[in-house]
C-alpha cells in the first residue's frame, strides 16, 4: 500500500478526492480501509473535525470511524469563504448545529484535545455547553480562540480540574475566575489577548493552582501578571512572549521570570511588528535583556525582531 500525501495539506483537502486517488494508485484496491481502526483513528486525528466527519461518506467501513477520534477541532473559518458571508444567520446556525451534532453522535470515550475557534460565530450559552461536554469526556488539552462581543465567563469546571494538562486561551476580554481554582496537572498555559480584573488575587490564584507549570506563552502583557507566585515558576522551562513593545513594565516582567524561574531552559521574545521603537532602540533593549540576571544557568534567551 502506498499512501501519497505529498501534494496535500492535512485538513485542507477534499477527503473523497484523496481516497479515490489512493485507490487509483493501488490499482483500484481499497487498501486504506483494511487498516486497523486504531491506525485510521490516528490518521483522522490530524484532520479538522469537519474533514474527519466527511470521511463517513466514503464507504460503510468509514461511516462511524470519526466518532472514535479523540481529537476534536472546530474552526468556524473553515466553513465560510469570507467573514462578511459567514455573518449570515444561516451560516452561523449551520456551524453551531454541526458542533452540537458531532458532540452528540461521537462515542463517549475520552477526548484528548478539544480545540474551538469562534472568530465570527459566538454564542456564550452554546460555547459553554460545548466546553462542558468536552470536560465531561475528560479532555486533557483545551484550546479556545473566542472573539466575544459581550462579557464572557468560562465554565468553572475548566479551572477546577485534575485532568487538564494544557490550557490555551485567546480571548479579547477579561478572564473572570471562579472562587475555587485547582489545576494540579496543568503543564502548558497560553494566554493570548487575555486581560485580568484589576486585582492581584486573580493572577495569584490562577498561577498558584498549577505548581507543575512547564510552558507559559503570553501575547500582549497584562499588568495583572506582575507578581507571579514562586510555586508557579519552580517547574517553568519555556516562556514565549509575543508582541513585545519594549516597555518598562514588559522588561520588568521578563526580568522577574528570568531571575526566578530556576529551571528555565528557553525564553523566546518576539518583537511587535507595530513597535514604535526604531532599530537602534530595539538593539539597546535587546542588549539590556541579554544582560538581565538569570536564575537558571542553562537558559537560552532568543529575541526575534
TrEMBL record:
Q: Which residues form the F-box domain?
A: 29-65
Q: Which InterPro entries match?
A: F-box-like_dom_sf (IPR036047), F-box_AtFBL13-like (IPR053781), F-box_dom (IPR001810), FBD (IPR006566), FBL13/AtMIF1-like (IPR050232), LRR_At1g61320_AtMIF1 (IPR055357)
Report the CDD domains cross-referenced here.
F-box_AtFBL13-like
Any matching Pfam family = LRR_At1g61320_AtMIF1
Q: The organism sits in which domain of life?
A: Eukaryota
Q: What is this protein called?
A: F-box domain-containing protein
Amino acid at each position: 500500500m502506498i499512501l501519497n500525501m505529498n501534494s496535500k495539506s492535512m485538513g485542507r483537502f477534499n477527503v473523497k478526492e484523496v481516497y479515490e486517488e489512493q485507490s487509483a494508485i493501488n490499482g483500484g484496491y481499497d487498501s486504506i480501509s483494511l487498516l486497523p481502526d486504531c491506525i485510521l483513528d490516528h490518521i483522522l486525528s490530524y484532520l479538522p473535525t469537519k474533514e474527519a466527519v466527511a470521511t463517513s461518506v466514503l464507504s460503510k467501513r468509514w461511516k462511524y470511524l470519526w466518532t472514535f477520534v479523540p481529537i476534536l477541532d472546530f474552526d468556524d473559518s473553515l466553513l465560510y469563504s469570507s467573514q462578511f458571508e459567514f455573518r449570515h444567520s444561516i451560516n452561523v446556525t449551520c456551524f453551531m448545529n454541526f458542533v452540537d451534532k458531532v458532540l452528540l453522535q461521537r462515542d463517549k470515550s475520552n477526548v484528548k484535545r478539544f480545540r474551538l475557534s469562534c472568530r465570527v460565530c459566538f454564542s456564550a450559552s452554546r460555547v459553554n455547553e460545548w466546553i462542558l461536554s468536552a470536560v465531561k469526556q475528560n479532555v486533557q488539552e483545551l484550546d479556545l480562540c473566542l472573539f466575544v462581543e459581550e462579557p464572557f465567563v468560562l465554565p468553572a469546571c475548566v479551572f477546577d480540574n485534575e485532568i487538564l494538562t494544557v490550557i490555551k486561551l485567546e480571548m479579547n476580554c477579561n478572564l473572570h475566575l471562579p472562587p475555587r481554582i485547582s489545576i494540579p496537572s496543568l503543564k502548558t498555559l497560553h494566554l493570548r489577548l487575555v486581560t485580568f480584573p484589576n486585582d492581584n488575587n486573580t493572577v495569584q490564584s490562577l498561577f498558584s493552582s498549577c505548581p507543575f507549570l512547564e510552558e507559559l506563552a503570553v501575547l500582549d502583557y497584562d499588568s495583572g501578571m506582575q507578581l507571579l507566585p514562586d510555586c508557579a515558576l519552580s517547574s517553568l522551562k519555556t516562556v514565549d512572549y509575543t508582541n513585545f513593545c519594549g516597555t518598562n513594565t514588559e522588561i520588568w516582567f521578563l526580568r522577574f521570570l528570568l531571575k526566578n524561574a530556576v529551571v528555565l531552559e528557553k525564553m523566546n521574545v518576539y518583537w511587535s511588528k507595530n513597535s514604535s521603537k526604531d532599530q537602534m532602540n530595539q538593539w539597546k533593549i535587546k542588549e539590556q535583556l541579554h544582560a538581565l540576571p538569570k536564575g537558571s544557568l542553562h537558559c537560552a534567551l532568543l529575541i526575534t525582531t
